[in-house]
Fold:
Amino acid sequence: MLRVLAFAAVAVCCSSMNVVAQDYSVYTKVFDLNAKEDSVPFLRSQTVFHAGKVYDAIPVAGEVTILEKAHKRIWIVNPDKGCSSSVDFDELRHLLKTAEDRLVQRLGELERDPGVSREALEAFRFQLRPKFETQFDPKKGRLRLMSKYISYEVDGQVSDRPEAVDAYLTYADWACQLNYVLHPQPLLPQVRLELNEQLRRHKLMPTRVTLRAKLERPLSLRAEHSLDWTLDSRDRQSIHKWESLLRDPKLQKVSLSEYQRIALGQRVAKAK
Structure:
């Protein structure tokens, strides 16, 4: 559940860099603005970019994802459950297309149900094909995406490294799609993808992202990103640990569906 909320809130928290680009790390804190203790982060994550790979770890979720851009695949490693899995980009696209087809079919069924409110249907349609009113202030580095149901406010820096911003957001694209497949989420990935496109357009590297969503389950979340363009000893130790996990013969390599059954089955069942 923590990872679900994190990916709903974190508009951009990690990305893949070209090998020639500078390695860097991102430390993210996520806050639930509806919680009593809204000044205390309920989730922290470490994301490291090195040699064309992206390593993203959320300790309380027990998972590490590793994007290998050169091989067009993403690994999901769960040492607590003793297993790992991988999915290539084409397979992920297929899974998402299948999921979207099911959602469209479900929407048609809901439209024929007199017990379903028109407001709920409109909110669902919006997520499938989101269209925001956009405002951007380059002097303040502030981007706003507004709609009746969902809004984003992003504070960041207009970067002079457009290739870095694009790479940053490319991973964010894949991450939100993977997590929609793996984890029950309150938001469809199309919403995040639209935000990422706006960030690309304005070459904005985000440092704070606030999400507010008026859905069946309202969301009010903020993600704060601390960016460091150099890797310290902790980052390098983490990379070594994560690469060792990938090679660990004790971890069972399973299909994505089997991974969901082993690592996520109980959580998915509860969410449904």
Observations:
- The helical segments are 2-9, 89-111, 118-128, 162-182, 189-201, 233-247, 256-271.
- The longest helix spans residues 89-111.
- The mean pLDDT is 85.
